């Protein structure tokens, strides 16, 4: 019976993937997005819909799936980064990460204090930290669209690539304090240690593995040891290795993947495009499974439990809590009002928040129900709102900045 249910799930998922493949290009040009369709398909086909997908919300598999999806996306997006534009406009991601991100966490905690007064203060901070990082996967329609000025694309790309890794130590620290973990050496020393460990190990693993892996790949290609049919495999395996090794030894796998990808960014475009094809395809396939599972096993059961405070926090998280810090931190950068609003709006929440939610779910905090419900509601609202608005707002921004958007942005006029 279990085997029959498994094969039925595989058949339904395969049929849906096949059907989506036929219209993927049309969807990308419309007001819809892949994650919207995948999530709605999971909801429609799951036990709260037609019942064709017999999926249960099992925390660990969903967490691993979401983490691997994010790892592939971060690696490929970082590898595709334009270092020339990034070097000329480093101020935007620096301000978003060093000023905007802390302000977002503070504002998110304040909103939780207002809407969820029954939560412990540490749980309020934890909720804000869980929803602070933006999602590189949901942001891809924007950061890969040439109609968006390069300055804005690269700023959002770097921000989404690093902010989830930066938030990992914060979530770990707040969660440890919330569950009463004994902290050796006192809180300040523990904070410094966790931050240094997560970021330092992630950086070291990403750079070392990618440098070593590319050296071996170059030698294999030069001596004809590899074959054309295996060209798509090495970078997908390298991204997975960067993530898994960093996580295994106490670092941030997300930072490892992003820094590893950045090491590849100066490579010739034609070569990168060929090598990254497998990584990007793997990320797309994993994203399909993640969003279908999210829709089938998470959204349906949570719909009946949504409250007005939860909806209000989700709406604030995607607007004021994100957009106000972005507006404030970009003052003095020469960024136009239209560009500030665009950057502020495109802070989608997704895979990183799902991962954090699952980590918190396992700890059974007193405020668990509120935390998990709010994270799921915010992610679901983000999938819908950011997916629908991506193409229309890209066209709006291009029209506001004119046809020379990239050139203007590179000189600080955006």
Automatic annotation (TrEMBL):
Pfam families: Na_H_Exchanger. GO terms for biological process: proton transmembrane transport. This is Sodium:proton antiporter. Keywords: Antiport, Ion transport, Membrane, Transmembrane, Transmembrane helix, Transport. It comes from the Bacteria. The chain crosses the membrane at residues 6-23, 30-46, 96-116, 161-179, 191-217, 237-264, 285-304, 310-330, 337-359, 371-390. It is a multi-pass membrane protein. Residues 17-396 form the Cation/H+ exchanger transmembrane domain. One of its GO terms (cellular component) is plasma membrane. The keyword tRNA-binding does not apply. It is found in: Cell membrane. InterPro entries: Cation/H_exchanger_TM. GO terms for molecular function: antiporter activity. It comes from Rhodovastum atsumiense.
């Amino acid at each position: 019976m279990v085997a029959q249910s498994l094969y039925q799930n595989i058949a339904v998922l395969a049929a849906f993937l096949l059907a989506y493949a036929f219209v993927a290009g049309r969807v990308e040009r419309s007001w819809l997005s892949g994650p919207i369709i995948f999530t709605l398909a999971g909801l429609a086909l799951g036990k709260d819909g037609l019942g064709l997908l017999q999926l249960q919300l099992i925390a660990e598999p969903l967490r691993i799936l979401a983490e691997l999806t994010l790892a592939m996306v971060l690696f490929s997006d970082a590898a595709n980064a334009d270092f020339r534009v990034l070097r000329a406009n480093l101020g935007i991601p620096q301000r978003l990460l060093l000023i905007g991100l802390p302000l977002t966490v503070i504002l998110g905690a304040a909103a939780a204090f207002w809407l969820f007064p029954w939560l412990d203060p540490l749980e309020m901070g934890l909720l804000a930290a869980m929803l602070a990082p933006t999602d590189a996967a949901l942001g891809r329609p924007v950061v890969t669209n040439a109609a968006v000025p390069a300055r804005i694309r690269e700023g959002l790309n770097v921000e989404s690539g690093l902010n989830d890794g930066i938030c990992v130590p914060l979530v770990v620290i707040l969660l440890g304090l919330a569950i009463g973990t004994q902290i050796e050496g006192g809180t300040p020393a523990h904070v410094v240690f966790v931050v240094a460990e997560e970021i330092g190990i992630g950086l070291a693993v990403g750079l070392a593995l990618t440098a070593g892996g590319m050296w071996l790949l170059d030698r294999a290609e030069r001596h004809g040891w590899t074959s054309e049919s295996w060209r798509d495999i090495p970078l997908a395996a390298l991204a997975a290795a960067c993530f898994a090794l960093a996580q295994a030894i106490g670092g941030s796998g997300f930072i490892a993947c992003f820094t590893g990808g950045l090491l590849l960014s100066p490579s010739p475009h034609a070569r990168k495009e060929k090598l990254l094809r497998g990584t990007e395809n793997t990320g797309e396939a994993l994203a399909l499974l993640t969003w279908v599972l999210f829709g089938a096993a998470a959204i349906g059961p949570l719909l009946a439990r949504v409250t007005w405070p939860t909806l209000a926090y989700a709406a604030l998280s995607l607007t004021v809590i994100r957009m106000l810090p972005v507006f404030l931190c970009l003052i003095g950068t020469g960024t136009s009002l239209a560009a500030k609003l665009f950057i502020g709006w495109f802070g989608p929440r997704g895979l990183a928040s799902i991962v954090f939610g699952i980590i918190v779910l396992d700890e059974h905090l007193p405020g668990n129900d509120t935390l998990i419900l709010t994270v799921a509601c915010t992610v679901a609202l983000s999938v819908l709102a950011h997916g629908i608005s991506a193409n229309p707002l890209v066209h709006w921004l291009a029209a506001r900045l004119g046809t020379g958007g990239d050139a203007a942005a590179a000189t600080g006029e955006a």
